[in-house]
Amino acid sequence: MFRFFENLVDPYADYAEQDTPPTRLWPFFRNYSAPFKTVFWVTGVLSVVVAAVEIGLIYYMGRLVDLMDGSPAEVWRNYGAEFIVVALLILIARPAVQAVHVLLLNNAVLPNYGTLFRWRGHRQVLRQSVGWFEDDFAGRIANRIMQTPPAAGEVVFQVFDAISYALAYLIGAAILLTTSDWQLLIPLVAWFALYAVLTQWTIKRVAVASQAASDARSEVTGRVVDSYSNIHSVKMFAHHDREIEYAKGAIENARVTFQKEMRIFTIMDICLVSLNGLLIVGVVGWAFYLWSTGNATVGVVTAATALTLRLNSMTAWIMWALSTFFQQLGVVAEGLETIAQPITLVDDSDAKPLALTDGRVEMRGLTHHYGRGSGGLDQVDITVQPGEKIGLIGRSGAGKSTLVKLLLRFYDPEGGRILIDGQDITTVRQDSLRQAIGMVQQDNALLHRSIRENILYGRPTATEAEVIAAAKQAQAHDFIQELNDQGGRSGYDAQVGERGVKLSGGQRQRIALARVILKNAPILLLDEATSALDSEVEAAIQQTLYGMMEGKTVIAIAHRLSTIAEMDRILVMDGGRIVEEGTHEVLLGQGGLYADFWNRQSGGFLRTEEPTS
């Protein structure tokens, strides 16, 4: 039974991804709620039925009191069959309706709705560009992905568990009082008008306060995760107290915003108690007056009293439900600041996979300043022939890494074009472009997974033998065999820790090399690929790299000039432009910037004189 309801909606069903999702709450909810349309309708109808049954029970209680004026034998003789039918309805029909209602709400809607929200939100965020992620805290992004789905589920829960039920109950109560004596409706309507004013006052402020509190919580998460993620820097610079103060500012802001939110609920509670006192005195007192003047029966007074006391107990629940509803709406609204942002780097609607033939790379008038008007690249023209190996050198901030990021299409250039085998990379699918490029970076952050999973990231379909062969080529197999983690896993099953922190820099770089070896992409980018290796391991790795480069188009960035001296061509960058070009011997003979770098090296390293921009 549970499985039937749990499987009514598939949260992972295929759907049309949107580059520009709705940014307003209700269109966004409507978009994400489409798979639940039928379930929502049935749940809503059952909420009304459940409320109607409760009203019916109160009405029948009043009728029962009036029937008790007669003798027991006469009452049983005239109404016995009716009593049995009502008893069966209470024992069988009422639990059945309630059971279906809670099964739909608790088992079909709540688990699947939150899962759908989290799944689609994660997919949407993962489609964003690298630049988009660089502009925000990773912790804040993750916090929004985690807290928005349960908030959205709570919104839906309150709609069908409290709000629709309460509306149906209130309408039913009004009808019941009217059928008894229309004058009983007067205090109820007066109370409802005041209750509506209080509700409006509350929710208007709760929505704003809740979003502010949610923003503050995300800021706390962002700052705390930032400290944890950079714990080595925190410890190295002895900034424990500084980080405490950095987090305290956000934590205190979260406390203040939460206090402001709670003030609203305190005022609401105090006003609600007073309003409910008016409701009880008004309806019950009026019913008693009607009975004393002979205009109402004892049954009417009983029903009115029971109904009023039920409303009294419900009002706090309804108000809290409404407050929770709008409070969680505020959380969702804050989450939409991440989930509903337009995709910043999208494929054209008619984009096709990259048709790689030779691996020719052309950069024409390439310009990119990260929106700042300076820095980055300025009118760069480079052609890399198929199978050619070029080296890029230059001071920090010369534009080398920017060039690589543009080639990988982490950003779209502000000017110019990049072509691979004659195809503008902005017109091909991003995944197909990056699948054709292998890259080893200076700082290789690994996934918090096993060694095997990290190497397989290069080619998930590779066999175990291929994984081991790649690790051996990268001089990583021996140290992998000796790895153990806290979970008792060893070798290729050992976990590497977040960003690979359990490994040394050289070990991480060798795992990254193994990953690229396994990928075997036709275009190879090397950004200080051996910078973290000791001399002995580097000498062995150099032979592996030369083997990897065979038949591939290679662009290598290096400060250690000895690693690129054997390249077919070397490009010297300065101020975002190509200022020199040629082989190692030619550039030395020119006596320019490259020769100056070479002559001023110490231990094979290039001294950088300008700060990174």
From TrEMBL:
Topology in membrane:
Multi-pass membrane protein
UniProt-recorded Gene Ontology molecular function terms: ABC-type oligopeptide transporter activity; ATP binding; ATP hydrolysis activity
Q: Can you tell me where the transmembrane regions are?
A: 39-59, 79-97, 155-178, 184-203, 270-291, 297-320
What SMART domains does this protein map onto?
AAA
Q: Which domain of life is it from?
A: Bacteria
Domain named ABC transporter is located at 361-600
Alphabetical GO CC annotations of the entry are: plasma membrane
Q: Where in the cell is it found?
A: Cell membrane
Matches recorded under InterPro entries: AAA+_ATPase, ABC1_TM_dom, ABC1_TM_sf, ABC_transporter-like_ATP-bd, ABC_transporter-like_CS, P-loop_NTPase, Type_1_exporter
**Residue span, ABC transmembrane type-1 domain:** 41-327
Per UniProt, the keywords (alphabetical) are: ATP-binding, Membrane, Nucleotide-binding, Transmembrane, Transmembrane helix
Residues forming coiled coils: none
The entry's function note states:
Part of an ABC transporter complex. Transmembrane domains (TMD) form a pore in the inner membrane and the ATP-binding domain (NBD) is responsible for energy generation.
Record's protein name: ATP-binding cassette, subfamily B, multidrug efflux pump
